[in-house]
């Protein structure tokens, strides 16, 4: 099973982190992002959107980090990571949506501006971060994990761009519950870091 990967991508890191925590072996294939390798064959044939990560597992080819997390959790991991019970599954999936929307477009996008020079509306990214981070911090005020009473793929999906928020000029000083949650994730058996986390 191959993961086409960029070390500095939080979306790629979500997949690497979950695979490490769940003991799922991945062959990491580095992509020369700056040279546009993801926009040329053979990668553009695997993902016409021209984005990474891309997971290839036999005949299964997936794009989008959230979709990849769901696939790996259901195919290779213990059900605790993504339960089959509809209510518990929905509890996890709503956080996957938060990761792909509010977190990606808030602290994640602020990081794209500051660290990589993307031409985005920085003020808008900061407004979005200022809305979502207090909500996440409040959620974690009386619980250890985002979705259930244990780590799930929800934590893997949300963690990267929240933990990397300072790289976009978004401080975590006022969010003690988020900082404690990041420390709990880092203490999990199998945890792997990425630059900035």
From TrEMBL:
Signal sequence annotation: none
Top-rank taxon, per record: Bacteria
SUPFAM superfamilies cross-referenced by the UniProt entry: GST C-terminal domain-like (SSF47616), Thioredoxin-like (SSF52833)
Short name of one Pfam family: GST_N
InterPro entries, A to Z: Glutathione-S-Trfase_C-like, Glutathione-S-Trfase_C_sf, Glutathione_S-Trfase, Glutathione_S-Trfase_N, GST_C, Thioredoxin-like_sf
Coiled coil: none
Segments forming domain GST C-terminal: 85-197
GST N-terminal domain location: 1-80
Sequence similarity: Belongs to the GST superfamily.
Protein's recorded name: Glutathione S-transferase
Organism: Zoogloea oryzae
Lineage: Bacteria, Pseudomonadati, Pseudomonadota, Betaproteobacteria, Rhodocyclales
